[in-house]
Design goal:
Blueprint: E1 5-10, H1 14-26, E2 30-36, H2 42-45, H3 50-62, E3 69-73, H4 83-90, E4 94-96, H5 97-108, H6 120-123
Parallel strand pairs: 1-2, 1-3, 3-4
Helix pairs in contact: 3-4
Length: 124
C-alpha cells in the first residue's frame, strides 16, 4: 500500500489517538500529526458544530503543512457537508471516517455513482 502522509483531526483523547496512530502505521499510512479534541463522552460530540470542525481541521492541517491529506476521525461527527469546504481551505483531499467508510461499503456492493459537491473522493 502506498504511504500517505496525513494530518488527522479527531474527537479523541491522546490515548485513543496513539492507538489510531499505530493502526494507520500498521496499514502503511504515515500520520504527520494527530490532534484530538479530547472528547470522551459521546453526548459531547453533538456540542461540536460543523464550523468548529472546519476551523479545527484547518488548524490541524496547518500544523503539518506538508501533509498530503486531512483525515477527520469520529463516527459521531456530522462531516459530509464540511468535506468540500475543508478541501477548499486546506488544499488537500479530506477523508472522513463515517461518510467515506459508507462510500467504500457502497463500492464493495457495486455502487459506482459519484456525488459531486462533497469533496474530491465523492466526485470521482
Amino acid at each position: 500500500m502506498a504511504s500517505c502522509i496525513s494530518s488527522s483531526a479527531t474527537a479523541y483523547n491522546d490515548e485513543i489517538n496513539e492507538r489510531l496512530r499505530a493502526f494507520l502505521i500498521e496499514h502503511g499510512l504515515t500520520p504527520a500529526v494527530i490532534t484530538g479534541l479530547g472528547i470522551e463522552a459521546m453526548t459531547d460530540v453533538d456540542k461540536v458544530t460543523q464550523q468548529d470542525l472546519i476551523d479545527f481541521g484547518v488548524r490541524v492541517h496547518a500544523s503539518a503543512p506538508k501533509a498530503d491529506a486531512l483525515f477527520v476521525s469520529c463516527g459521531g461527527f456530522r462531516t459530509l457537508e464540511i468535506i468540500a469546504p475543508l478541501e477548499e481551505r486546506t488544499g488537500v483531499p479530506v477523508i472522513s471516517s463515517m461518510p467515506h467508510g459508507l462510500w467504500a461499503g457502497a463500492r464493495l456492493v457495486g455502487v459506482e455513482d459519484v456525488a459531486p459537491g462533497y469533496g474530491r473522493l465523492f466526485s470521482s
